[in-house]
Amino acid sequence: MSRLRFLVTNSSGGSNPSSSGAVKVISGFVFLLLVVFSCNAQKKYMEHNQVTYKIIFGDGFNNDTIKLSINGMIVFQKYNLLSDKSDGVTNSWVNISKEKEHFFISTSQNKNLKQIGLIFDEIKLNFSYKGKTTDFQVNKKNGMYIVVSDDRKGNLTFIQSKDRPVFD
């Protein structure tokens, strides 16, 4: 900063009245550059580290046990689901993220990323629930949100959407 002050001092050694204005302009410019670089870095991070699919367990679960596998890899072995009485949603979720060329999974049970071998266009979810096995083929064109619910007859229903689901 002393060099900057040297550049804005006048020949008599006193400060130039416009020096504080120049410092503000330069400080503003530096701040703007930092914001631009930060936004660019965030965009690059999001391109390489993004949640590709979010599986949400919704309505109809009453302390029911479920098993979930993704392309044959067990995610939940025996996991209890309980839908909230007010909005009908459980506190359980599964995120499938893509980082560069690899897929990772995190869950409400274990938020640490675990690498899984997936091919983007071939993701199959397999559920064991109330003695029945149900498969769901993920279609990337249908969106990133997958809501799994119980139809109150013991069957699982699936809704896949591009829009974030809203529960009342």
Secondary-structure topology with pairs:
Elements: H1 2-7, H2 19-48, E1 49-57, E2 62-70, E3 73-82, E4 93-99, E5 102-107, E6 114-116, E7 124-129, E8 132-137, E9 145-150, E10 156-161
Parallel strand pairs: 1-9
Antiparallel strand pairs: 1-4, 2-3, 2-7, 4-5, 5-6, 7-8, 9-10
Protein architecture, described:
There is one protein chain. The protein has 168 residues and is α+β, with helices and mostly antiparallel strands. The chain folds into two domains: 47 residues; 112 residues. Helices cover 21% and strands 40% of the residues. The protein contains two helices and ten strands. Strands 6-5-4-1-9-10 form a six-stranded mixed beta sheet. A four-stranded antiparallel beta sheet has the order 3-2-7-8, with no helix packed on it. A hairpin with a 2-residue loop joins strand 2 and strand 3. The protein is elongated and about 75 Å long. The chain starts with a helix and ends in a 7-residue tail after the last strand.
Report the total helices: 2
What are the secondary-structure elements, in order, as H or E?
HHEEEEEEEEEE
How many beta-strand elements? 10
The order of strands across the largest sheet is 6-5-4-1-9-10
Terminal Cα span:
56 Å
Q: In percent terms, what proportion of residues is strand?
A: 35-45%
Secondary structure class reads alpha+beta
Mean pLDDT value: 79
- Unreliable residue stretches: 1-11, 39-48
The Rg value, from CA coordinates, equals 26 Å
Global geometry: elongated
Q: Largest sheet at a glance?
A: 6 strands, mixed
- How many domain units? 2
